[in-house]
Amino acid sequence: MIEERIILIAAYVVIAALLLSFYFYTSFSKAFKASILILTSFFYFFTWHALEGLMGWPANQDMPSEFRILWINISEPDKENINSGEIFFWVKDLDNAGIPSAKPRAYSIEWSEENAKTAEEALKKMEEGEILNGNMSRNILTGDQKKSEGENYQDTGSLSGQEGEEPTFQFKEVAPPTLPAKRPL
Questions:
Q1: Which long-range contacts (CB under 8 A, 24 or more apart) does 119-124 make?
Q2: How remote is the C-alpha of 71 from its chain's centroid?
Q3: Residue 173: which region, alpha, beta or left (left: phi > 0; alpha: psi -120 to 50)?
Q4: N or C: which end of the chain has fewer CB within 10 A?
């Protein structure tokens, strides 16, 4: 990661040098030069924010529906500092055979009591050495689905901001891999 940072810094320095030479040694109008300077400065900020995903920040995408959970971090809500709380997951996407197939990725969701309890239980199992797979559902209710009389549905937030969605998780232990029988030497 350090090499990428050095390359990025060097690229910024080269662009700044080219921009200064353009600004001082061309015969374009001052308005055109100023607009190029402002546009280039805008791109510095744009690239910095675009590279957040490369620096370990949680992805802005939805979590995969099935995944291998590598670690969980629960950030409780804090009313004093106006922090609504988040649950951070570090996961690997599973392929069709249920085998982790991608590089690990960080995701975050808004804190809810139900998801925090589920994540806490999964974290305890992981600390005991269990390997866990997880799946996520969004509990989307459509107009066709009828609620039972005793069921109280309450929208308390969502991962993607759509109404009627609150992601819930289920974690299940993964059986240890079966190894082929060893042949005698």
A1: 119/72, 119/74, 119/87, 119/89, 119/169, 120/74, 121/171, 122/69, 122/72, 122/169, 122/171, 123/72, 123/74
A2: 13
A3: beta
A4: C
Residues 6+ apart with CB under 8 A from 154: none
Contacts of residue 29, Cβ cutoff 8 Å, sequence gap at least 6: none
Residue ranges in the chain assigned as alpha helix (H)? 2-25, 30-50, 113-127
Centroid of chain to Cα 166: 17
Closest CA to 173 of 136, 129, 112, 116: 129
Other C-beta atoms within 10 Å of 169: how many?
A: 20
User: Could you read off the pLDDT of 87-134 as tens digits, one per residue?
Assistant: 899 999 888 877 888 888 888 888 888 888 988 999 999 999 888 888
Q: What are the structure tokens assigned to 62, written together?
A: 């939805």
Alpha carbon dihedral 92, 115, 124, 60, in 10-degree steps, equals: 30
Transcribe 49-66 into DSSP letters: HHGGGGGTPPPSSPPPSE
| 54 vs 103: CA distance, rounded Å | 12
pTM above 0.70, yes or no: no
Q: What is the dihedral of CA 83, 75, 119, 67, to 10 degrees?
A: 90
The C-alpha atoms of residue 135 and residue 141 are separated, in whole angstroms, by: 18
